[in-house]
Amino acid sequence: MPSTSIRKTDYDPKTKILSVWFVTSGKQYDYEGVPPETYAAFRSAFSKGRFFNEHIRDHCPYRLHKAHPPARIVS
Fold first, then answer.
1. Domain boundaries, the chain
2. Each residue of 41-72: b (16+ CB within 10 Å) or e?
3. E strands, 1-75, where?
4. How far apart are CA 6 and CA 24, in angstroms?
5. Helix orientation angle between 36-44 and 48-55, rounded to the nearest 10 degrees
6. Has this prediction a pTM greater than 0.85?
7. For the ranges 21-25, 49-53, 69-73, which has the lowest average pLDDT?
8. pLDDT per residue as tens digits for the range 39-70
């Protein structure tokens, strides 16, 4: 089932980093140390937002990606 709060996810099993993009803010957060079995359970969860809140959000350190400012047009 699609999530109303999570737009996109990506997972790197080598580094155990779960990248999450949120719908409302559009921001990307990288959560470190996410075990592969946690990611698998997250992917198969009926409510991805609820699973994320209960098992990832306050359990894994994260890094917020800074948005790149839009390019300025110089004339």
1. 6-64
2. ebeebeebeebbeeebeeebebeeeeeeeeee
3. 6-12, 17-22, 28-31, 62-64
4. 8
5. 150
6. no
7. 69-73
8. 999 999 999 999 999 999 999 999 997 665 55
